[in-house]
Amino acid sequence: MRLGLVSGIFLLTVIGGLLVQGSQMDLKRITPQEAYDLMEDEGYVYIDVRTEPEFEGGHPEGAYNIPFMVRGPAGLTPNPDFLKTVEANFPKDAKIILGCQSGNRSLKALVQLTEAGYTQVVEQLAGFGGAKDRFGSTTEPGWQAAGLPVDIRPLEGRDHYALGAKVKK
Asked: Choosing from 66, 100, 109, 163, which is the catalytic residue?
């Protein structure tokens, strides 16, 4: 009986893992250089999903800032207006690259936008600052370490407040 229970739990874990993995197989993830090339050659826009202070500390040249998470008294929490802000500023067929600091928030944002019907959205691996291991060592360089163009000031109309102002309340 106990062996059957353990086997059943193992089987559910494997199947659950395959379902999660299978759902992410359709999600496109690209390197920082590929992101830059898509912006230059194919008209993609870069949405930086980091918080405003992170964005203001440096971001890919020409990026828009729509935070996926916002900082509050309890730390980082999901931005309830993320999807509404994207929808107010970009059509469902817009060519969009998502990036964050290390690739975690942008992957979650990719899932959310894909589920909302966005058809040409990709996620830039390793974010702005690079993917890190559990000890804080860089395992994959991000946008900045790749030597790609960086801004510290957003272009007019591309900051969080300007983009959020287009959301109908």
From this structure: 100
